[in-house]
Amino acid sequence: MQENIVWHEHHVDKAQRMQRLKQKPCVLWFTGLSGSGKSTISNAVEGYLFSQNHMTYLLDGDNVRHGLNKDLGFSDGDRVENIRRIGEVSKLFVDAGIIVLSAFISPFRNDREMVRGLLNEGEFVEVFVDTPLAVCESRDPKGLYKKAREGKIPNFTGIDSPYEAPAAPEIHIRTDLYDIETSVKMIIDYLKEKGYLHA
Ligand code: ADP
Fold it and tell me: In this structure, are strands 26-31 and 171-174 parallel, antiparallel, or unpaired?
């Protein structure tokens, strides 16, 4: 009889998703100056992981600032809120079993630590894309440093807004020493070594 049918609430949990997806989800949190190589390296890492049948999602400035965070600017307060929301979204993706790649300047140490605090142990992998300001400025892939030097972009990280380097990142990449391929390999090797990528 209809009234005697009991629906069992079956909560699909993270462990089941991990088993199905053959991976341990985490956030690869790329931080570094504009032009340091966050987008380039994170895209290449995602491309490799995807080719190996892993489930990934890349969050970057464009897909977040044009949508979820389009009401936010670049004041200190808005930068904090920008990162907080990205942290919460990353946490949802991790709960879904996905390997998230977040590529944001995220200049403030406290904000990055706040995101680390949202996640479980081992789920936040900080990747410091360490490129000297002078190198970033000479690359200037989007012409932003030139504009910032002309005073056309206020609060530009590295020029008139600070960048606080990570004290103990899980992965430290010096792009003035390593090429893109070597940097990608460093990250993949870390993920393999720490058991994020099941066979
Ligand atoms: P970000 O996302 O940090 O603002 P981008 O990835 O958009 O930086 O730009 C970095 C630029 O530097 C790209 O044009 C890239 O081709 C170049 N580049 C040169 N050498 C490297 C390297 N070793 N690692 C990463 N990017 C490099």
Answer: unpaired
